[in-house]
Amino acid sequence: MSMALNPLSVEVTVVREDVALFTVQGDLDADTGTDFQHHLANQLHHGRRHFLLDLAEVPFMDSSGMNIILRVYQEARELPGSVHIISPTPAVRRILDLTGVSITVPVSQSAEEALERVDATPGAQQRPDTGRPES
């Protein structure tokens, strides 16, 4: 019954060509995680490499939500890219800290701070290879 009270809402904003901001509202759990995962996969498919996850309106997250975040983190690192969590609620921050996810995935207080971290990431501004053959 409580799960119907906090349905998941995900708003995606393309901040730059390679950066997507996900504003998530509601519980992020086994029942709602698939929807969130589809939004992330869609942005990966469209060439986004950096993912800013605003969790300020997520009152509850279980291991399903954490697993989705860790999976997209692994996929983004292979691109190379990054994932940044923004303003998690105290309950969600506690889960992130207890499980060590906040050690792996950076936590920022604002989208601006997360974007600064994206820009400071080694290789964030790299251009593709020029295509010239080696001599």
Automatic annotation (TrEMBL):
UniProt domain STAS: residue ranges: 17-118
Domain of life the protein comes from: Bacteria
Gene3D superfamilies: STAS domain (3.30.750.24)
InterPro entries according to UniProt: Anti-sigma_ant, STAS_dom, STAS_dom_sf
Record SUPFAM superfamilies: SpoIIaa-like (SSF52091)
Pfam families attached to this UniProt entry: STAS (PF01740)
Annotated region (Disordered), positions in chain: 113-135
NCBIfam families membership: ant_ant_sig
Record family assignment: Belongs to the anti-sigma-factor antagonist family.
Protein name, as recorded: Anti-sigma factor antagonist
Species of the source: Streptomyces prasinus
